[in-house]
Specification:
Length: 459
């Protein structure tokens, strides 16, 4: 295992190799039943050496600190980043995440086919909005980027580089798993899935309640998967200190829209609710300006989302997405010895989202257009080499005035005796109630503070 914790910019990396291990995830909410507070997990992580780190971001693994080893005579090769979390006592919440899997051939130009992350701009990596690339959201407090699937054609030098992307395949963001019983009701088996109501009171003066039966009308795989995406990306070194990046994509929105319909079934004395996942399409464009100084780095980004295919059906109820969205963001990074400090700010033009249709009676929208719409984020990643070989850590604080939430994320990872990695994580969230003016995904997990401790062994 090659482990070089810090490169020249002291950036945080994760280990490449095949690992198996165990962990214990414990929720801190005392109102949870005891059986729903503690989950022993079996862990599998397989990450290969990245064939060329100059053209893409390093893989973002979950558990262990990665190599920045770059083969000097690379001409072709593949890369895989796969992680699995197997819940030993509740298999329904097990997750599988293949964030990258591609084959690359490079000779003057690079041709890459498969699923690959790309450095579209820093917003995707810093705030995990899922605008350009889909997200792995099995745990809402720990969203991860997943690569786009298709063909990447990269040419030019690092000082002036262009990438074209095209794909007939669309894979949306991956949310938390759920279980529906034979009565058409969602079981409370996954703390990360917010189950909808199981009963309804039809009239305010009524003394009785009726069951709700849900029916999910899944579109065929062909309807979802076979949707075209295409775009381009260009990065140019403008001067010794300034670099510019521009991109454009035409693609389906990575977030599926939920449309619902239904009514009261008099014969069965129940409410029938029908759920229809829908695809919406948009154009995404962005420009970014980077400035590198000897003691700090700044990045400024502007992006625009323009929806040209928004779902609308007067017989169904769904969230009306904002057709034009502006996104501004800035970040400052300061390396101090073995510590990387950062401060960033995100602003979007999304102010409120409301549902439209016969069942539009909720205080908050059915679907969040973005995971978060405004936020400050402060972070620090660090590395130490005390008595054991390597210790790495990261601490992040997220605060949003508009979305009325605060989140603290802390993690430690240490490598022992060549093959053993010990890690720990803490996620804490304080959030206000969701409303039409405050629609986001993070606040849905306000009761899911947790601590996780585990170990991985490389084979």
């Amino acid at each position: 295992m090659r482990l070089n914790v810090f490169n020249k910019k002291n950036s945080f990396h994760w280990v490449a190799g095949f690992f198996m291990g165990i962990s214990q995830q414990s929720f801190l909410n005392s109102s949870f039943p005891l059986k729903d507070r503690h989950y022993p997990m079996g862990l599998i992580q397989y990450v290969t050496e990245k064939p060329d780190l100059t053209n893409s971001l390093a893989g973002t693994g979950d558990y262990a600190p990665t190599s920045d080893f770059v083969p000097t005579n690379f001409s072709k090769g593949g890369f895989v980043d796969f992680k699995a979390r197997l819940a030993l006592t509740k298999p329904e919440i097990s997750t599988f995440n293949l964030s990258e899997a591609y084959y690359s051939y490079k000779q003057n130009q690079e041709f890459r086919i498969g699923r690959s992350l790309w450095d579209w701009n820093f917003i995707e990596d810093e705030f995990q909005l899922g605008i350009w690339e889909p997200l792995f959201k099995a745990e809402t407090l720990r969203r991860e980027r997943q690569g786009l699937t298709g063909a990447f054609w990269i040419f030019g030098e690092p000082e002036n580089q262009v990438m074209f992307f095209a794909s007939p395949i669309y894979i949306p963001s991956q949310g938390p798993s759920y279980v529906m019983n034979s009565q058409g009701q969602f079981e409370n088996v996954n703390p990360w899935f917010n189950s909808p109501p199981r009963k309804v009171k039809l009239f305010a003066s009524s003394t009785s309640v009726s069951d709700i039966q849900y029916n999910i009308h899944r579109p065929s795989e062909a309807e979802v998967v076979f949707n075209f995406s295409g775009g381009l990306w260009w990065r140019k070194q403008l001067s010794e200190k300034f670099r510019g990046t521009a991109s454009f994509m035409r693609k389906p929105d990575n977030q599926l829209l939920l449309a619902v319909g239904g009514g009261y079934n008099v014969a069965a004395d129940r409410g029938d609710v029908h759920i229809y996942p829908k695809i919406q399409k948009h154009d995404v464009s962005s420009i970014q300006l980077d400035m590198d100084q000897s003691t700090y780095q700044t990045e400024l980004t502007y992006a625009r989302l323009s929806y040209w295919s928004l779902f609308s059906d007067p017989t169904l109820t769904s969230t009306r997405f904002q057709s034009e969205v502006d996104v501004w963001a800035g970040r400052v990074k300061v390396p101090i010895n073995t510590v990387n400090m950062s401060a960033s700010y995100l602003w979007t033009s999304i102010r409120s989202l409301t549902d439209e249709g016969p069942l539009a009676f909720r205080r908050t929208a059915l679907t969040a257009q973005l995971p978060i719409t405004e936020a400050w984020r402060f972070g620090a990643t660090f590395g130490l080499q005390p008595y054991f070989e390597t210790l790495e850590g990261q601490l992040y604080y997220l605060w949003s005035q508009r979305n009325q939430l605060e989140q603290i994320s802390f993690g430690l990872s240490s490598k022992w005796r060549e093959n053993l990695v010990i890690f720990s994580k803490v996620e804490l969230l304080q959030a206000a109630e969701l409303t039409s003016e405050n629609t986001n995904e993070i606040s849905q997990s306000a009761v899911n503070d947790y601590v996780e401790v585990g170990a991985l062994y490389e084979f």
